[in-house]
Write a structure and sequence with these properties.
The chain contains 16 helices and no strands. The chain has 316 residues and is mainly alpha-helical. The protein is elongated and about 80 Å long.
Length: 316
């Protein structure tokens, strides 16, 4: 199963497209929603493969330098901190990642020069040079370096982005979401994890993901008029047409989610949509959304529209 926040964001984007269009087809947009999830998952996997490509290139270059006619001492005894980085090694050697990519026909075959160029640029990068010289070593620092390398260099590498754009014009639209999934994968790695345990979240059930976003997408539309009216009535001094469309959609999604998913805690739903609002709406949206939803959740609990099941959920 993919990260639920990612799925909520994809549903939000599709609902925005639906309500922004005068004659949009919900069925067509829902189909594109499913396709978009799969495209972004493929993009996520391909970004994970980048680490293995860079490690492989680094090893090849180090071996080539040893064979020079007049190798230097550094050529003969290269600094191995990058290729031995445990997070990098886990990403490069994961059988689970390899199998998942083979199944979905994702690879970087034919792009050796791209990663050779990137690695040679890394060798003069201040972040990279400083890391190689650091002492003592620690897993936390190794993890932090790979995360920083990804967010500051790899994800912003223009030649890499051009490859994605050449494959599909929609890839770049989802790059930020895919990059956030990669960051989450790196952040969740632990020193004691095996390669496959670290990649455990690659195992997903597309049906489970699709069921979640389909129900959220369809029911948000179905409850649209009811929820818009409720939001407008609890938004002091704000007519519904003055509320930002992004805010209105996020609140409608939150109201829908607490009603139809009886095993997701109300607090989780509230926090998730406030976090999404921080990234996709106005600076003041989080406080506005929080205030309106707080009022409505209290009313919905009281009239029975919110019914949670399971231990610890009844009072959440």
């Amino acid at each position: 199963m993919l990260n639920r926040r990612y799925l909520r964001i994809k549903a939000f984007q599709s609902l925005y497209a639906y309500w922004q269009s005068d004659n949009a087809s919900a069925a067509r947009i829902e189909k594109e929603l499913f396709n978009g999830v799969e495209r972004t998952y493929d993009l996520y996997l391909s970004l994970l493969l980048v680490f293995g490509e860079l490690r492989h290139v680094a090893e090849l270059i180090q071996e080539e330098r040893k064979k020079k006619r007049l190798p230097t001492a550094e050529d003969l005894a290269p600094n191995l901190r990058f290729v031995d980085n445990p997070v990098l090694r886990t990403l490069a050697q994961s059988d689970r990642l390899r199998i998942e990519c083979e199944k979905r026909k994702i690879s970087w075959v034919g792009n050796h020069e791209l990663f050779t160029t990137l690695y040679r640029e890394l060798e003069s990068n201040e972040l990279f040079v400083a890391y190689l010289q650091e002492s003592p070593k620690s897993f936390k620092r190794d993890q932090g370096f790979i995360l920083q390398l990804f967010t500051e260099v790899i994800a912003n590498y223009e030649d890499l982005q051009e490859v994605y754009e050449g494959r599909s014009i929609t890839w770049l639209e989802d790059l930020d979401l895919a990059a956030s999934l990669v960051k989450r994968t790196i952040e969740q790695m632990r020193e004691v994890d095996s390669a496959d345990l670290a990649m455990e979240e690659l195992i997903r059930d597309p049906k489970e993901d699709n069921d979640f976003i389909s129900a959220l997408f369809r029911k948000t539309i179905a409850f649209g008029e009811e929820h818009e009216k409720a939001i407008s009535e609890r938004s002091a001094n704000w007519e519904s047409d003055r509320i930002a469309l992004s805010d209105m959609i996020l609140m409608q999604m939150a109201l829908t989610e607490v009603r139809i998913f009886d095993q997701i805690p109300v607090k989780v739903t509230l926090n998730e949509y406030i976090e999404i609002a921080k990234a996709y709406s106005t600076p003041k949206s989080k406080n506005f959304i929080n205030g309106v939803l707080d009022k409505l959740f209290i009313e919905m609990r009281a009239d029975g529209r919110i019914r949670k099941v399971g231990r610890g959920l009844l009072e959440s």
